[in-house]
Amino acid sequence: MTIGMTPRHSADEICQNAGPNPNNNAAGTKRLFSPGFSNVLLCYVCSCAVLPAPLALLFAVNYAEHPEERLFAHYHYIRTTIALMVIGSSLGGIMIVLGAEIATQLTLAGLFLVTLTGVLALLRCAKGIFSAIMRQSPTSYRSYIL
User: Fold this and answer.
1) What is the pLDDT of residues 41-64, one digit of tens each?
2) Tell me, what DSSP letter sits at residue 133?
């Protein structure tokens, strides 16, 4: 053993601290990707950001049949929000493309539909986030409106 190179902890202390720690990052990550309100919040944030919305849809479909009614309602609400985004954006996009050939009014109507879809999806996500923070199920979660 060289001088000045003494270990700070004994081998017993190191083995004792090697067990699972609830404050560990791995435990938090596991909780984030399991059904619960933290996962619901992640899904709403992904839906708001639009690009990771398929990840939210994957979670919402995977945990669709959750036995707790509040979580079931949230996952159903997330699925209807993403369906609203897909349907509204697709119809608006088709109107924009067809409007380039047919009429300017159709293009403007398509832009309006895409904008309206985005605003409605953001409002639904905000409502879902608020109700998830309050640990309540969203009201009228089967509807495509608010």
Assistant:
1) 989 999 988 888 888 989 888 888
2) H
